[in-house]
Amino acid sequence: MNDYPSGDIRINGIASSNGGSFRQVSIDGMGTIHGDVTCMEISCNGTSKVEGNLRSERASINGIAKIKGAAHADQLRIDGKVTIQGKLTGEDIQVNGHIKIHGNCEAERFESNGIFIIQGMLNADIIEITAQGGCSAHEIVGEQITIKHAGSQFMTKLLGVFMNTHVTATTIEGDYISLEHATATVVRGGRISIGPDCIIERVEYKDELHIHPSSKVKYHTQI
User: Fold this and answer.
1) What is the rounded CA–CA span in Å between residue 121 and residue 113?
2) What's the per-residue H, E or C state across the chain?
């Protein structure tokens, strides 16, 4: 994506616009874009809706945003609440708020310091998750996967009485895996460290396996 028209979309207050190809898209207030959007940069503050697909080099979303199609952003930062009804792809995805994706999420690097719900697969070379609450994906696949929980062990146990604080997936698979506060049916990889408060049905490892005493692993086998 190198060539863009010189036109921009700037919405302040309550307004809507047709989709198309633009250099910059800025929404401050309550804005709706009808159709697909391709742009170099998009910034959404307040309440935003894209009634189609979104493709951008850089995207920053604050407040509440809903994308009714698929989304792609080379660089994506989320500091609000976002719903994507299709898949999400990108190079560097950073989640500091809340995101729900109805399809798969694919990236080179995925970093989350918030909450995510991915109904499909989360697939990235590097995955770093510091969960602030319950997170889930159908599958988590990557080369290097790190999952930990924010806060102290005392606060984690206290919050666990009132809310789900685990990262949950059917399968977690990678070359290097380090888990805390994770729940999975199968964890499969080369070097695996199962840290505190994990609940795992089965672990399949190739090279190394470490299991914290507070975690529950029903079966483990070297492959």
Assistant:
1) 18
2) CCCCCCCCEEEEEEEEEEEEEEEEEEEEEEEEEEEEEEEEEEEEEEEEEEECCEEEEEEEECCEEEECCCEEEEEEEECCEEEECCCEEEEEEEECCEEEECCCEEEEEEEECCEEEEEEEEEEEEEEEEECCCEEEEEEEEEEEEEEECCCHHHHHHHHHHCCCCEEEEEEEEEEEEECCEEEEEEEEEEEEECCCCEEEEEEEEEEEEECCCCEEEEEEEC
Q: What digits encode the pLDDT tens for the residues 6-27?
A: 689 999 989 999 999 999 999 9
- Give, in order, the Cα–Cα distances in Å from 189 to each of 37, 141, 148, 193: 39, 10, 18, 10
User: What's the pTM value of the predicted model, to 2 decimals?
Assistant: 0.91
